[in-house]
Recover the amino acids of this structure.
């Protein structure tokens, strides 16, 4: 019944949008899968292929970003001047050619050149995609339509890195070729199926040239609130890009994670976005958007993951430069880590005192029955360092009487202290 309702809901969503919308979403998905095959592994490829460090990788991403910014601005003006369809096809073809060239060049300088060309022309198609969706969707459906496009993009990122990591273990060149092929396939689909959506100019209106269209950005720069938002968003994006651009090399060089492992990590990340985006968006929609963005940005300055010892805290701050460290699972096994003490530094008496206090608070808050049941998982962590027979552990963790549970704890601690 649940499956049948889900199929029905998908069919309803499909019928809510025109066929051209789904062609655009589908073609964009194909192209994005190709890009997701290779882009997450750029840092790994460059450091290995050209035997350089992260400084050179950072320079490449800087060139990407700067050329991407100007390419998007130029593309926005050309989209209004030349039309949506032509810009998309041009961007896809340039993307295909530069991707193939990146896989073939043997000098880092030429790799940089291809990156600039890709940023200037391949990304120029971005505004055309957005304009085309705006053209074909009524105003009430645009927000949802762009949401569907975003889900498709995240779905491509959920698929691409997993496949790309597997292929990268054998040949990076295959990744560049695959990206080239997907871009050309997408260009062919757009050429054959997608219709031009640029609105026809009214006869009485004066047709604007490219120069006049580009000058229109002056009006955008005059909007101070919007420009402030752009600046703040740029700062947050820079922090994210620093993490995203260096994570693959860090995992490879420090933790020995292969390309396939990093690919699966990126797939897991994008998969969580696909699964939880709509649910979380609905939950936070009642709160001020700027406040939510500010709180989300705070997560960029907090390190997390793999912190099990006090030394891990210092190591993470030294390696990443983060301002704080988030501790999760380690706190269950060793709540003293917040006092910068490792578990082996804690005496049996200290463990017993904290554990009994924790049990008392759990019973008081949840009640005798539920409080004891919920406390059992913490009891197992507290007692993990001590030698306890399987029978004794089973008896303790299945006990339903708080008094008997406390009595058994006393016996375990007495044996551990002796």
């Amino acid at each position: 019944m649940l499956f049948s309702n889900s199929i029905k809901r998908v069919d309803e969503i499909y019928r809510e949008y025109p066929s051209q919308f789904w062609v655009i979403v589908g073609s964009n998905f194909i192209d994005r899968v190709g890009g997701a095959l290779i882009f997450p592994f750029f840092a790994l490829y460059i450091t290995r292929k050209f035997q350089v460090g992260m400084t050179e990788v950072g320079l490449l991403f800087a060139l990407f970003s700067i050329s991407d910014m100007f390419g998007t601005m130029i593309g926005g003006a050309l989209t209004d001047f030349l039309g949506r369809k032509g810009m998309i096809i041009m961007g896809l073809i340039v993307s295909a050619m530069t991707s193939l060239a990146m896989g073939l060049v043997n000098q880092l300088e030429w790799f940089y050149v291809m990156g600039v060309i890709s940023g200037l022309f391949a990304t120029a198609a971005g505004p055309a995609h957005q304009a085309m969706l705006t053209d074909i969707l009524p105003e009430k459906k645009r927000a949802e339509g762009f949401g569907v496009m975003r889900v498709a993009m995240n779905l491509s990122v959920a698929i691409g890195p997993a496949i790309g990591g597997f292929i990268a273990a054998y040949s990076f060149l295959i990744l560049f070729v695959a990206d080239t092929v997907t871009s050309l396939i997408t260009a062919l689909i757009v050429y054959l199926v997608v219709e031009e959506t640029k609105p026809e100019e009214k006869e009485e209106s004066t047709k604007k040239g490219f120069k006049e269209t580009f000058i229109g950005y002056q009006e955008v720069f005059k909007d101070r609130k919007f420009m402030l938002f752009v600046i703040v968003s740029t700062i947050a994006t820079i922090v994210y890009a620093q993490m995203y651009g260096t994570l693959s090399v860090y995992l490879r060089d420090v933790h020995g994670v292969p390309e396939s492992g990093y690919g699966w990590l990126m797939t897991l990340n994008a998969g969580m976005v696909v699964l939880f985006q709509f649910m979380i968006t609905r939950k936070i929609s009642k709160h001020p958007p700027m406040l939510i963005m500010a709180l989300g940005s705070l997560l960029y300055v907090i390190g997390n993951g793999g912190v099990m010892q006090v030394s891990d805290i210092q190591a993470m701050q030294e390696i990443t430069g983060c301002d704080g460290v988030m501790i999760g699972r380690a706190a269950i096994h060793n709540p003293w880590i917040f006092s910068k003490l490792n578990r082996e530094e804690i005496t049996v008496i200290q463990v017993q005192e904290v554990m009994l206090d924790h049990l008392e608070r759990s019973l008081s808050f949840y009640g005798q029955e539920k409080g004891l049941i919920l406390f059992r998982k913490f009891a197992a962590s507290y007692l993990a360092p001590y030698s306890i027979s399987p029978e004794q552990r089973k008896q303790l963790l299945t006990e339903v009487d708080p008094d008997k549970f406390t009595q058994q704890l006393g016996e375990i601690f007495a044996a551990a202290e002796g």
